Amino acid sequence: MLLALDVGNTNTTLGLYKLDGEKAELAAHWRVTSHRTQTVDEYGVFFVNLFEMHGMAPSQVTDIIIASVVPPVDSTLRQVCETYFHVEPMFVEPGIKTGMKMLIDNPTELGADRIADCIAAYERYGGPCIVVDFGTATKFEVISERGEYLGGAIAPGLGLSADALFNRAARLSRVDIKRPAKVIGTNTVAHLQSGLYFGYISLVDGIIERILAELGADPAKPPRIIASGGLARMIAADSRYIHEIDELLTLDGLRILFERNRTARPRGHAH
User: Is 113 a catalytic residue?
Assistant: First the structure.
């Protein structure tokens, strides 16, 4: 089985794929909080517990691929893989074979999670397409009809925007981020929810609108627009442009990257 790890600043998503036969099948997946300070053993015990809750054992894992945007945890995760799974992990890093032409100034700057998103989006939905990945930051990725990565945009995530507001405004108390009944609120909680929720949707739709204009998108054949990440479902509900939701897009991209690179590296366990 293949264990795919998408390590973000806020959350870590794990996916376990059965690799038997032609088609890989997702057997289990989890979303947990990312911890920069956990030790190898703390991570190891945590992962083992997740497996056991699903009636699985770490010994079933034969391969591991990791996309991480949190460099301080990379060496810890490498040790976890070698100690608890006895597998040397593959990291998505410069030099990995993507199969996608990167038409940007410096392809090595592109985050591992963004590469995985682009690979999965083109493989599953074709091009042209736009991926909007809602994480700590919200990332916009643009892929051409021929499957080239054209570039994108990064905005502060909704949770990050809310944190900045609550931390800097002394009289505003923290509220649950959700869709309010109407835009014009009649109390402070409703005012905050309206500004955060509807304001963020306008940000997302505004950037997508400008991307479409810059692409000169054909209205008869517009690009597919796919939302991914933890807040995808909530934001997509009121977006004028997002019609596809694929919360496991990054994990699927990791699986595809693994399959494209597995012949390029020695298969087997860590010693």
Answer: yes
Q: Where are the domains of the chain?
A: 2-91, 101-254
| β-bridge pairing 129-134 and 63-68 | unpaired
Task: Name the residue type at position 212.
Answer: L
pLDDT tens by residue, 147-184:
999 999 999 999 888 888 877 776 667 788 889 999 99
Q: Is CATH 3.30.420.40 what the domain over 2-91 is classified as, yes or no? A: yes
Nearest partner of 131 among 32, 257, 248, 259, judged by Cα = 248
Integer CA distances (angstroms), 133 to 24, 73, 82, 89, 247, in order: 23, 22, 30, 24, 9
Strand intervals (E) in the chain: 2-7, 11-18, 25-33, 63-68, 90-91, 129-134, 137-143, 149-156, 224-229, 244-245
Q: In terms of CATH, what superfamily is 101-254? A: ATPase, nucleotide binding domain (3.30.420.40)
Q: Is 13 annotated as a binding residue?
A: yes
| CB 251 within 8 Å of CB 13 | yes
Question: Is 99 known as a binding-site position?
Answer: no
pLDDT digits (tens, 9 = 90+) for 207-252: 999 999 999 988 778 899 999 988 899 999 999 999 899 999 999 9
- DSSP for 238-266 reads T-SS--EE-TTHHHHHHHHHHHHHGGGS-
The reported pTM is: 0.88
Is 216 annotated to bind a ligand? Reply is no
Q: Binding site annotation covers 20?
A: no
Catalytic one among 63, 113, 117, 252?
113
Q: Is it true that 2-91 and 101-254 share their CATH fold?
A: yes
